[in-house]
Amino acid sequence: MIKAKVAGIGHYVPERVVTNFDLEKLMDTSDEWIRERTGISERRYFDPETDTVANMAAKAARMATEHAKIDVQDIDFIVFATITPDYFFPGSGVLLQRELDLPGIPALDIRNACSGFIYALSVADQYIKTGGYRNILVVGAEIQSSALEMNDRGRAVSVIFADGAGAVLLQPADPDKDQHILSTHLHADGRYAEELYVKDPGSSRKERLTKDMIDDVGIRAHMNGNAVFKHAVVKFHEVILEALTANNLEVSDIDLLIPHQANLRISQFIQKQLRLADDKVFNNIMHYGNTTAASIPIAMSEARQKKVLKSGDLLCIAAFGSGFTWASALIKL
Ligand code: UT7
After folding, report:
1. Residue 51 needs a FRET pair 20 to 30 A away by CA distance; which of 59, 178, 247, 325 works?
2. What is the pLDDT along the chain (333 residues), one digit of tens a residue?
3. Which CATH number fits domain 180-332: 3.40.47.10, 3.20.190.10, 3.40.190.10, 3.40.630.30?
4. How far is the C-alpha of 115 from the C-alpha of 295, rounded, in Å?
């Protein structure tokens, strides 16, 4: 049976660095509060003059294709995970396809929030396994900053989320080599949909967008931070063990764990539950905040650049977020 491998990894983050001290000037918060509760020191915000979700994704994609040593023109499928598309519709997949000058190839959009990248990876994995495509670009890209409320009312959410893009290129694995995606594991529980969501504008109300929606918090992300935290630490642990069990592996077989960068305290909690040493877990939320679907591929790319993630490593990625959705994957690099 054909298996898929991760042949290339890339990322792009906007140039503008926004520190906790910058946020202190806009809302009643403090560097100390943000670092203690989330681990974040700084994050990147897009430049409305130059950055779009699609063109940030294109930069990450070009880096991934260079790493894979293929031409951008060889990409034959795009799977794009984002909850902050450039337009309400169409999705950013087609905009990325246009940006990369690849007319005709399919572009599929995935909107599973923080788990979006692993959902997207699992879709691409299936298409490679069934032999339909040979160079699938899997992207996670987000611009969250333009929707954040930069005042006291929005502070609990605004200090966490940020912008960026990451991409991987999947190809059929070489049957003589061990480099391949071992498995992906996906879950969802819609009973918690409203614990982390943006309600408006929505299609099921008489008027899709009203002034009240703008004045009230409907167009802003609502997050029950405590509920998210409590479910996250349980589901991250479960879904990582599920992936290991499915492959007859132990926690000690993991060379590197990259959890979705939701909150450093969540990552540290998971690390403790699994009894993993510090050098077995990669976090970069300190510098980039929570970039939703982009956080895992950005972290994979940075870990590779820093030589923390190497060829031959067994990588475990895991995510939890809005939906609730959660997911994991085991990847032999
Ligand atoms: O990808 C999934 C994304 N989401 C997450 O991962 C979120 C998971 N949850 C969390 O990380 C945490 O729940 C938060 C970091 C969001 C909040 O931390 P917490 O320890 O759960 O704080 P809290 O919501 O219980 O709030 C504690 C206090 C409150 O004040 P009072 O009621 O105790 O007076 C808040 O109003 O902190 C206040 N607060 C802030 N203070 C300074 C909330 N946001 C801020 C802020 N700066 N930015």
Report:
1. 325
2. 899 999 999 999 999 999 999 999 999 999 999 999 999 999 999 999 999 999 999 999 999 999 999 999 999 999 999 999 999 999 999 999 999 999 999 999 999 999 999 999 999 999 999 999 999 999 999 999 999 999 999 999 999 999 999 999 999 999 999 999 999 999 999 999 999 999 999 999 999 999 988 888 889 999 999 999 999 999 999 999 999 999 999 999 999 999 999 999 999 999 999 999 999 999 999 999 999 999 999 999 999 999 999 999 999 999 999 999 999 999 999
3. 3.40.47.10
4. 10
pTM reported for the whole predicted model:
0.97
Q: Has 316 been annotated as catalytic? A: no
Q: CB within 6 Å of ligand 1 — which residues?
A: 29, 33, 37-38, 114, 155-156, 159, 223, 225-226, 228-229, 232, 262-263, 266, 290, 321
Domains of the chain, by residue range, sit at 4-172, 180-332
**Nearest-10 crossing angle of helices 92-99, 53-68:** 60
Best mutation site among 25, 159, 229, 236 for ligand 1, i.e. most ligand atoms within 8 A of its Cβ? 229
Whose CA is closest to atom 25 on ligand 1?
226
Query: If you search the block for the tokens 């060379």, which residue do you land on?
Result: 255
